[in-house]
Amino acid sequence: MHDLAIVGSGIVGLAHAVMAVRRGLRPVVIDRHAAPIGASIRNFGFVTVTGQGAGGTWQRAMRSRDIWLEIAPEAGIEILQRGLLVTAQRPEAMTVLEAFSRHDMGRDCRLLTADAVRADYKGVGSTLQGGLHSPHDLRVESRTAIPRLVQWLANHGVAFRFETTALAIEGTEVVTPQGRLRAGAVVVCPGDDLSCLYPDIYARHAVTRSQLHMMRLSPPGFDIGCPRMSDLSLVRYRGYAELKESEALAGGLAREQPQHLEAGIHLIVTQGADGSLVVGDSHHYGRAPEPFYDVAVEALILDEFKRVLGIDPPPVIERWLGTYASAADDLMYASPDDRVRLVVVTSGTGASTSFGIAEETLNDLFGTETSYER
Ligand SMILES: Cc1cc2nc3c(=O)[nH]c(=O)nc-3n(C[C@H](O)[C@H](O)[C@H](O)COP(=O)(O)OP(=O)(O)OC[C@H]3O[C@@H](n4cnc5c(N)ncnc54)[C@H](O)[C@@H]3O)c2cc1C
């Protein structure tokens, strides 16, 4: 009998395991694959605070960022980059950044003139109008961070059952082909698996899947300083997009970059320890997204890269697709049974918010303290 059974070894499941260990609980984590290979290792590893939706998502991101900073050194995870630079390529984008800097969420962020950006950063395009620097954000390399988190958890008494599918949850028992696992409570974190566990709840929340094109580029020969975003991000990230000032920007983008908007493209550029750049992304929605990488989408992403960084993109050395669960709200949280919680991040924010979410879930199941706006 385990204190807690967690289905899913992506960042949402692992964050619950970390917070359970911190409470002195001994959880078991169950995953159908031999290792975590879902959204959580395919992402940028960008723990993004600035730009998250005002209220609960921003608060959870802030809390998660703090927990990442505590857990990373313990688990041997390197924080590769800190902060965020959003550069504006149009006056309307600068207006959004100015409005954001006046908002509560922008209080520690700095507005920068074009000259100030050029003085501090290499790789800025000729259309630069200025930028906003946030000190809050950080970046890890997910493909190493997630396995290290698994190892840290295993060293702290967490049992892992890989290659074990949870077929059903009955009471607080997890039914698997290899037998039943009994637990005091169950947290189910299956990500974008819409049809195995609780398909009715997924359907009620109209959860679908979002598919993203991602690539790694050779080192450009300089340090980009911190992760970058561009005008297109300002109409996608709710923290900016919900400001009334973003309407004019959205109109301009619709006229000037309709293909980028159509493919759900916005630019994130992060940099690894070896200098290589992780660049993305696009968004195509549907329960069964095309499994084929589209080079036309890649060309649009690299077009935005060139405009924003002002250099020809270095050679692409890796390409991949990723999917995550997507719905109108950032988070789907349900209680299918008294001691069972279904926790699914339904936006591209799982690396940024999972620790805060996990803290809330465990408070809900084992005793309360924190809660954020839903
Ligand atoms: C390309 C890409 C870039 C992204 N960039 C960022 C970013 O920079 N910052 C950010 O915050 N977020 C980002 N995201 C979003 C983030 O990665 C996701 O929100 C997060 O990884 C979701 O975590 P998860 O644990 O729910 O899902 P997953 O990592 O997909 O894990 C779910 C796990 O559950 C297991 N599972 C499912 N059903 C069962 C079952 N019945 N039995 C056993 N096991 C089961 C699966 O095998 C899987 O391992 C990005 C996503 C993608 C795809």
UniProtKB/TrEMBL annotation:
Native source organism of the sequence: Asticcacaulis machinosus
Keyword Oxidoreductase part of the UniProt annotation: yes
Protein family (similarity comment): Belongs to the DadA oxidoreductase family.
Cofactors required: FAD
Protein name: TIGR03364 family FAD-dependent oxidoreductase
Keyword terms: Flavoprotein, Oxidoreductase
Transmembrane segments: none
Record has Oxidoreductase as a keyword: yes
Domain called FAD dependent oxidoreductase: residue spans: 3-361
